[in-house]
Specification:
About 5% of the residues have low confidence. With 125 residues, this protein is an alpha+beta fold. The chain has one domain: Thrombin, subunit H (Beta Barrel). It is built from two helices and eight strands; from the N terminus they run H-E-E-E-E-E-H-E-E-E. Strands 1-2-5-8-7-6 form a six-stranded antiparallel beta barrel. It has a two-stranded antiparallel sheet with strand order 3-4. The termini are far apart.
């Protein structure tokens, strides 16, 4: 049974995605780096943030600031919008279809334990 806040959460995510989300192509690869025929490539909407901020706090001895990590990115996928697309895995590729040159990223790791979004941490492909 869904928690009472799920409908509100889903509405908030949909509102953010209506403004910030863009089309990305998920390219699923096998362990040899070739197309995984058991997982068909999919185009989905997601919030792609390139140069993800690494926030530091005084608790780790650093000043309050944000550092932009070159070559790093994160793709935030709504669980509702992602639907039944195959699960992303480390080594898969993400192509930013709405950006100049359609840059390609590699999935470095997946955070799929959040209740609101699936987060793919990306690096340069």
């Amino acid at each position: 049974m869904p928690a009472p806040f799920h409908a509100l959460r889903d509405s908030a995510i949909a509102a953010v995605d209506a403004v910030m989300a863009e089309d990305v192509r998920l390219l699923f690869l096998n362990a040899q780096g070739r197309a995984d025929t058991s997982r068909v490539a999919a185009t989905v909407k997601g919030v792609l943030r390139v140069g993800a901020a690494d926030v530091r706090t005084p608790t780790n001895g650093k000043a309050w600031d944000a550092r932009i990590a070159a070559g790093e990115a994160a793709l935030y996928l709504s669980r509702v919008a992602y639907g039944t697309a195959p699960a992303l895995r480390k080594g898969d590729k993400v192509k930013a279809l709405e950006r100049a040159g359609e840059p390609l990223f590699e999935v470095m790791r997946i955070d799929d334990r959040r209740h609101d979004r699936i987060v793919a941490h990306l690096g340069e492909a």
